[in-house]
């Protein structure tokens, strides 16, 4: 018989647990979120406050004046100083804070990544840009150096001497340049790698000493890691100690971030501080204000690669490659009456200024006409042929095999032997019109190189042609890269343009009494000066050899591709 529950020996002990109420749950969640957000804002203040509010870590101008007396001054007051002795003054300046107007170093590292490392390395750098904005300035600099330099050969690195000077010069402030002219010996120091700034400062601004951080090297390759700041500071200390003897005034110019370093405050008699507001009012120098003219520079990018501009370039690349293929097929396969409208429809601008006197005198002749033009890109003879709508034969000094095969007009390679080349040109002129670029190489800037006088001996019917081209994204010339890609990069631009101006004809060597070497050069110099006047370009005596020695370190060897 079953016993009732009350009589069982096993008893159940039930503990009552009250259910949480709505108000207690709300209080618990509120405490959790308060603790979470408190920790979050603590991290935010720890990470972001140094970059957002530099006053917490750097003394302001008022504090500096209050604590240091008359040692520190605001930068604008330096411009009014006229009592500087060039023999008794040592001027120290920070490159990024006191010389360049741009507040960001990212575009210069993008140039290094693209030109020295290629498209993939540049893509990695633009992808890392959000991270660069989150971390501090020093850590961001280390990341950019690693991405741009890791694995790059030291012997082949010429971006610092061939590419960066152009962009640095375009960013120099007029106010700082005037200050540098007042000082005696000048020392430029920077936190960026020395290989990026040394050539620019020494060759174009006549800076006596350059101090920058060294990038570590292993077996001929950059490791992407910079030496410690102490080594560059020690080098600056050594320069100040050796050059400061017998000099009355040692003056420093820097920003607030680097103005209180020991090597400045312990040696400089005065330190002038540059504020961000000062830099915003600065003006960039014009080309005619350069201390030395910029004639040669290399690299593919024709724009300052800011983050937004670089992003636009990567977005354009798929369209640009497709558009370049359409333009190339149109120019190579189609006749002039079809290819010219198609090129214009795709955004290519081609303008021609013909010479009516030459057209009226275009009578039947047994020999062809010799067109002599300055050299902007490898496409000069092609667009002259498009403009005149006639077949021409182009004489080339150095052209890749791929470009020769794809050229829609006939090309003849010269051997750089005077007797052999003159016979070849004589033969071509007997067959038809000939076009030659006596500079022997391209020049991007508004200057003309020395004209080789060989063409003056070939014909008495010489027609000078002034050529000029403009691009917005990629240069269609290179000295250290693959020349077979030059036409592709040029037609990859969104709206490339070519201006062709046919000038009055000139007589050849036979028109000069006596002939000889002097007359030969007189004809070449006369043609050069006429083209220079038409374009507003300066005439120089520089040659192809000078260009390649400066940009590529060789005498003009063409990369085969």
Give a topology summary.
Layout (H helix, E strand, L loop, with lengths): L21 H31 L8 H8 L3 E3 L14 E6 H5 L6 H12 L1 H9 L1 H6 L2 H13 L9 H4 L1 H6 L4 H9 L2 E9 H12 L3 E5 L1 E4 L2 E6 L2 H15 L5 E7 L6 H4 L4 E5 L1 H5 L26 H27 L2 H10 L3 E5 L2 H5 L9 E4 L6 H9 L4 E4 L4 H6 L3 E4 L4 H14 L2 E3 L10 E2 L13 E9 L15 H6 L5 E6 L13 H20 L2 E2 L4 H8 L10
Parallel strand pairs: 1-8, 2-3, 2-7, 3-4, 7-8, 9-16, 10-13, 10-15, 11-12, 11-13, 14-17
Antiparallel strand pairs: 5-6, 15-16
Helix pairs in contact: 4-5, 4-7, 15-16
General description of the model:
- This protein is of the alpha/beta class.
- The protein folds into two domains: 71-280, Rossmann fold; 307-510 and 517-552, Glycerol-3-phosphate (1)-acyltransferase, CATH 3.40.1130.
- 43% of the residues lie in helices and 15% in strands.
- The chain has 23 helices and 17 strands.
- The chain has helices spanning 22-52, 61-68, 95-99, 106-117, 119-127, 129-134, 137-149, 159-162, 164-169, 174-182, 194-205, 229-243, 262-265, 276-280, 307-333, 336-345, 356-360, 380-388, 401-406, 418-431, 486-491, 516-535, 544-551, and strands at residues 72-74, 89-94, 185-193, 209-213, 215-218, 221-226, 249-255, 270-274, 349-353, 370-373, 393-396, 410-413, 434-436, 447-448, 462-470, 497-502, 538-539.
- The strands form four sheets. Strands 9-16-15-10-13-11-12 form a seven-stranded mixed sheet, sandwiched between helices. Strands 1-8-7-2-3-4 form a six-stranded parallel sheet, sandwiched between helices.
- Helix 4 runs antiparallel to helix 5, helix 4 runs parallel beside helix 7 and helix 15 (307-333) packs antiparallel against helix 16 (336-345).
- It is elongated and about 80 Å long.
- It starts with 21 loop residues before the first helix and ends in a 10-residue tail after the last helix.
- Residues 1-17 and 46-70 have low confidence and may be disordered.
């Amino acid at each position: 018989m079953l016993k009732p529950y009350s009589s069982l020996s096993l008893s159940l002990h039930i503990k009552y647990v009250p259910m949480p109420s709505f108000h207690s749950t709300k209080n618990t969640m509120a405490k959790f979120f308060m603790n979470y957000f408190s920790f979050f804002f603590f991290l935010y203040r720890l990470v972001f406050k140094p970059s957002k509010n530099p006053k917490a870590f750097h003394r302001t101008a008022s504090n500096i004046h209050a604590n240091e007396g008359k040692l520190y001054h605001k930068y604008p007051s330096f411009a009014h100083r006229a009592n500087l002795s060039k023999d008794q003054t040592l001027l120290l300046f920070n490159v990024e804070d006191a010389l360049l107007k741009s507040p960001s170093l990212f575009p210069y590292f993008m140039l290094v990544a693209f030109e020295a490392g290629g498209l993939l390395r540049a893509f990695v750098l633009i992808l890392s840009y959000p991270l660069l904005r989150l971390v501090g300035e020093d850590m961001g600099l280390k990341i950019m150096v690693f991405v741009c330099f890791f694995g790059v050969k030291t012997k082949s690195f010429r971006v610092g001497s061939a590419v960066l000077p152009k962009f640095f010069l375009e960013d120099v402030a007029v106010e700082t340049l005037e200050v540098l002219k007042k000082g005696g010996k000048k020392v430029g120091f920077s936190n960026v790698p020395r290989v990026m700034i040394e050539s620019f400062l020494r060759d174009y601004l006549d800076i006596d000493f350059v101090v920058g951080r060294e990038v570590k090297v292993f077996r001929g390759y950059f490791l992407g890691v910079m030496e410690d700041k102490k080594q560059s500071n020690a080098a600056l200390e050594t320069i100040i100690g050796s050059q400061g003897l017998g000099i009355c005034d040692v003056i420093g110019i820097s920003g607030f971030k680097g103005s209180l370093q020991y090597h400045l405050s312990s040696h400089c008699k005065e330190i002038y501080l540059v504020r961000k507001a000062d830099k915003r009012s600065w003006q960039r120098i014009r080309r005619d204000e350069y201390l030395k003219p910029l004639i040669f520079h290399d690299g593919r990018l024709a724009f300052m690669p800011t983050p937004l501009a670089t992003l636009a370039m990567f977005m354009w690349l798929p369209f640009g490659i497709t558009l370049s293929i359409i333009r190339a097929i149109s120019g190579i396969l189609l006749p002039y009456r079809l290819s010219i409208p198609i090129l214009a429809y795709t955004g290519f601008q081609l303008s021609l200024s013909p010479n009516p006197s030459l057209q009226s005198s275009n009578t039947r002749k047994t020999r062809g006409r010799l067109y002599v033009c300055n050299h902007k890109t490898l496409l000069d003879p092609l667009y002259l042929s498009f403009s005149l709508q006639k077949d021409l034969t182009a004489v080339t000094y150095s052209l890749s095999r791929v470009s020769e095969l794809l050229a829609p007009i006939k090309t003849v390679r010269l051997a750089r032997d005077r007797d052999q080349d003159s016979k070849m040109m004589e033969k071509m002129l007997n067959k038809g019109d000939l076009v030659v670029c006596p500079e022997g190489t391209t020049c991007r800037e508004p200057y003309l190189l020395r004209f080789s006088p060989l063409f003056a001996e070939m014909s008495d019917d010489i027609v000078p042609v002034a050529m000029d081209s403009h691009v917005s994204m990629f240069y269609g010339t290179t000295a250290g890269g693959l020349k077979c890609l030059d036409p592709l990069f040029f037609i990859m631009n969104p709206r490339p343009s070519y201006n062709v101006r046919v000038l009055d004809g000139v007589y050849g060597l036979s028109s000069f009494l006596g002939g000889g070497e002097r007359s030969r050069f007189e004809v070449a110099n006369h043609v050069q000066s006429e083209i220079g006047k038409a374009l507003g370009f300066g005439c120089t005596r520089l040659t192809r050899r000078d260009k390649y020695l400066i940009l590529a370190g060789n005498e003009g060897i063409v990369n085969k591709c």
